[in-house]
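Recap for those who missed Tuesday's class. We walked through two folding examples back to back. For each one, the amino acid string is listed first and its predicted structure tokens come directly after. Nothing is annotated here on purpose, so try labeling regions yourself before you check the end of the notes.
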Amino acid sequence: MKVLGRKTSGNVQKVLFLLEELGSDYTREDYGRQFGNTATEDYLAINPAGKVPSLVDGELRLWESNTILRYLAAKAGSPLYPDDLAARAHIEPWMDWLLASLNDTYVTIFKLSKAGDPVPEANGKALAEALTLLDGRLAASPWLAGPEMTIADICLAPIVHRCLGFPVELPALPALRAWHEKLAARPAFQKVVAA
């Protein structure tokens, strides 16, 4: 298997985090706008959105990081994504929530922080509200989807890791920070996210 995408992308990191957790054999190649290779005809044939990551697994070509997570965990028969549909129904909303509710705020603050620009109060408040929602969930459950770690946790881990480091005033978030510490202690996280 090959992962196409730069190692500093949060969306690439979630795929690499899962591959490491699964003990999968894979390689990663640098792809992204800064490499000038995601708008090529060959890459767009793999990923019509021209973004990263993409996965090449034999003849199969996949794009969109959450789709890749589902595929990899299901292919491995991993308990991180159980066969039981009711169990999956507790996992997938958190993956969708990341894209629908947290991602815009995350990307905006990430870009402002990277440029050294101040973060508007409204963006800081939106981030605090989103992370407070996660904190509430994790106060009631050790992992996002229940008593065991799943791909929901892997999906959110790289993004929340960055969010907790943004120059934004945040509430205490004790349950979220404890969850983050559990993930940060994992060798796979240390190899691909914390590095």
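Example two. Treat it independently of the first, because the proteins are unrelated.
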Amino acid sequence: MRLINVNAIREGDIIARDIISYEGGILLTRSSKFKNAFRQKLLERNIYEVYIDDELSQGISPQDIINPQIRRQINQDIKTEFEKIKHTLDINVEGISRITTTLFEELSKKEIVCDVMDLKMNDDYTYQHCIGVAILTTIVCNKMGIRKDHAHKIVMGALMHDIGKIIIPKNTLNKPEKLTQEEYELLKTHVEIGYRIVEKNSSVSPITKLAVLCHHEREDGSGYPLGKGDELHIGAKIVGVCDVFHALMSNRPYRQALSVKEVIAIAQMEKINVPIRQVVESILAFYPVGSTVLLSNGDIGIVEKNFVQDVARPLVKVVYNVNTHQKHEYKLNLQERLDVCVAEKIPDIPHS
């Protein structure tokens, strides 16, 4: 299968994966044929890329880091827990803990290359974002060798880090234009609101509470709400870094998701913890499996596999060359061909 821009899909293309709506229903089922009438509906739901099956991409199949069925269940569970909190302002610690345990069980592999598509789900942004940050946080804790009991508490903080946003008006959270200063100050209160929700609960670890309160603090003291610097707990630093990365990689009302290259460039200007930032950079695949890329030698191909050794140099199935206009069919491992690199990700194969 290959990942293709919605604007490049043709009538009759075969959908390779179920496309899920905000409400959890299926918009398009796997193996169904695409119709042009679907295009605008997908774009309206901030779905800009989908997987299709075709002859060019036979044998290429992205491997989910979390079983899709389990991922959907996690998504539903966190939505249920957040809805309960919204009405009672009380935390079901056991429910959040079960979700955290599931994430650790699913992400227990020693070496993981995290595909951007692993962090995306077509759902309400707050839920999607909390799960995405928790996935990144789990992987980072594993790679940094953080004690499992501490890591569990940090990931619980990641799952709940934006819980205060359930109180913020949706027209502020989802505003497509730049926020006014007053709206921005209101948005910033979500960390203190979230902290007040968890503060008095003796079943919530102080490590989790700090992640909720301090994930917008920065190394130079320029963050909020306390203006703390490098004396922050490691858990708050990890959640803060993962929060920055996932927010930049996500579609928002005021912009589309940025590419991994753009995300890394912006994150490097943020006053976040450098060693943690570098860990996240080392696990993010620049080009999702199934995406179409233009190589520096003029070849165009489909990414078949990413490698933890160097996430910017995948295995590519070459199918075309823009200089000769010739079709090809061979594999090029950029881990071995250091004279060739990916120039850019492109929407589709020109001759397909």
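Answers for example two:
DSSP finds twelve helices and ten strands in the chain.
The domain at 2-53 is CATH 3.90.105.10 (Molybdopterin biosynthesis moea protein, domain 2).
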